[in-house]
């Protein structure tokens, strides 16, 4: 039985920890609050992920360090660099693999499908932060200091991960208007938190996967409007009314709201096709993403549960 250090207890950190613990591994999950799933194989630890000496201590006996942290969206520029540096140092000092959960921001405004050969070309400061995290980690890997791997997910379709689709599901089920960001009709790839955690655990343990980034297998492209229509159909609800907060409106609101200002910087992902070609990953791991119908059914179940609990 090996020890695995998981940093972050959001949807990915939680699912990664449970996947490892249910396989008989010992998990140490780290958050500022000491939160995490309740399982006999999971030790919950309160710590600051940017505290490099503390992370070195916690990783000393670990075979892998999983960066599933999720700093406040409006503070990526200030909060991500010290966390990334501390976890890279912790993995290097212990000999553990550093497995990081990334996203697609680093690719910027693409003109075709994102593949394993698409270069990083960030369009905004959030993408620049994510790109720098990877280039720093890869440089350390190539220098022989540490083993690293990254998985890159598109926007999550399922609940619990700030999902553009799932957050609208209660409104769709209630027949209310759904509001989407950027644009409603551009093809878009959607990933699940389950597939992301599955890939993260697999590539961390696979020496052949180290030293590169892997695109998480994702569902066939669906626009935001189509995704919401799928949710309505699965729930037996009327076709949803969809309204769009376009780039101009987002920029205007962003003058007063830091969060909306950050969202405006990535609106291009929904105004133009933003599609993943995950074939290289599927060829390597040998499995396909979760069936879209299963994902939609889970979104509907979660929305109904949340609605019932709120009453």
Kindly describe this structure:
The chain has helices at 11-22, 52-59, 76-94, 125-142, 169-173, 193-204, 224-235, 247-254, 258-264, 268-271, 279-285, 292-310; strands spanning 3-7, 26-31, 42-46, 62-67, 97-103, 147-153, 155-156, 178-181, 190-191, 213-215, 242-245. With 311 residues, it is α/β, with parallel strands linked by helices. The strands form 3 sheets. Strands 3-2-1-4-5-6-10 form a 7-stranded parallel beta sheet, sandwiched between helices. Helix 4 links the parallel strand 5 and strand 6. The radius of gyration is 19 Å and the shape is globular. The protein starts with a strand and ends with a helix.
Query: What's the total helix number?
Result: 12
Instruction: State the total count of DSSP E strands.
Output: 11
Alpha-beta content class = alpha/beta
Shape: globular
- The low-confidence runs, each spanning 5 or more residues with pLDDT under 50, are none
> Which strand-content bin applies to the residues?
15-25%
Distance between the termini: 44 Å
Mean pLDDT: 95
What order do the strands of the largest sheet run in, or round the barrel if closed? 3-2-1-4-5-6-10
What does the radius of gyration come to? 19 Å
Major β-sheet annotation: 7 strands, parallel
Helical coverage, percent range = 40-55%
The SSE order reads EHEEHEHEHEEHEEHEHEHHHHH
């Amino acid at each position: 039985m090996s020890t695995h250090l998981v940093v972050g207890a959001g949807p990915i950190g939680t699912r990664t920890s449970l996947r490892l613990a249910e396989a008989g591994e010992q998990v140490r999950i780290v958050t500022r609050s000491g939160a995490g799933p309740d399982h006999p194989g999971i030790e919950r630890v309160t710590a600051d992920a940017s505290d490099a000496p503390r992370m070195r201590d916690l990783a000393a006996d670990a075979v892998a360090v999983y960066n599933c942290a999720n700093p406040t969206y409006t503070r990526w520029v200030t909060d991500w660099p010290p966390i990334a540096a501390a976890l890279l140092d912790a993995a290097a000092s212990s000999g553990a693999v550093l497995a990081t959960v990334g996203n697609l921001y680093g690719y910027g405004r693409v003109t075709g499908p994102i593949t394993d050969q698409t270069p990083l070309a960030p369009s905004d400061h959030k993408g620049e932060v994510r790109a720098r995290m990877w280039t720093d980690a890869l440089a350390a890997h190539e220098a022989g200091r540490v083993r690293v791997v990254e998985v890159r997910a598109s926007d999550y379709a399922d609940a619990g991960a700030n999902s553009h689709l799932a957050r609208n599901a209660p409104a769709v089920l209630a027949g209310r208007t759904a509001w989407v960001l950027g644009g409603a009709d551009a093809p878009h790839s959607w990933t699940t938190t389950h597939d992301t955690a599955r890939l993260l655990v697999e590539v961390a343990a696979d020496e052949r996967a180290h030293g590169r980034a892997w695109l998480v297998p994702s569902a066939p492209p669906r626009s935001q409007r189509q995704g919401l229509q799928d949710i309505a159909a699965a729930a037996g609800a009327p076709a949803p009314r969809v309204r769009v907060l376009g780039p101009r409106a987002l920029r205007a609101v962003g003058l007063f709201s830091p969060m909306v200002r950050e969202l405006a910087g990535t609106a291009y992902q929904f105004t133009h096709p933003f599609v993943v070609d995950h074939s290289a990953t599927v060829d390597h791991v040998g499995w396909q993403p979760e069936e879209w119908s299963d994902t939609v059914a889970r979104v509907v179940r979660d929305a109904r549960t949340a609605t019932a609990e709120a009453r």
